[in-house]
Amino acid sequence: MTLTESILMELDQEAQTTKWVLDRIPEDKLTWKPHPKSFSLGQLALHIASVPAGVTTIALQDSVEAPNFTQPEPKSRQEILDTFSMSLETAKANLKKMDDVRLASTWSLTRGVRW
Q1: Nearest-angstrom CA–CA distance, 28 and 43
Q2: CA angle, 89 as apex, 21 and 70 as ends, to 5°?
Q3: Rounded distance, CA 38 to CA 92, Å?
Q4: Do the strands 108-110 and 63-65 form a parallel or antiparallel pair, or are they unpaired?
Q5: How far is Cα 91 from Cα 17, in angstroms, rounded to an integer?
Q6: Per-residue pLDDT for 64 more than 90?
Q7: What is the pLDDT of residues 82-94, one digit of tens each?
């Protein structure tokens, strides 16, 4: 089994639990914040939903400049679930573009001046 196949299997397995959790976020609590300086529950959930695509997109490159991060407020739980579904499909497509050498290589995420 290749590293790509192994990661794809694990992604599918972990996605089931993640979807289960995202699906149980109360629709009326999306704007709730654990602390005034924190992201809202909806923003945190949308961030989690977008991680698979984001990480694999970065991993396709040797170096990436970190963007200014802003997290939108989702309008509904369905938006979070749709984002997660699209993120998984993007992640799988990205992973299929990589071989074991690429998956084992080092990449960097930088901010401003590189040292």
Answers
A1: 13
A2: 65
A3: 31
A4: parallel
A5: 17
A6: no
A7: 999 999 999 999 9
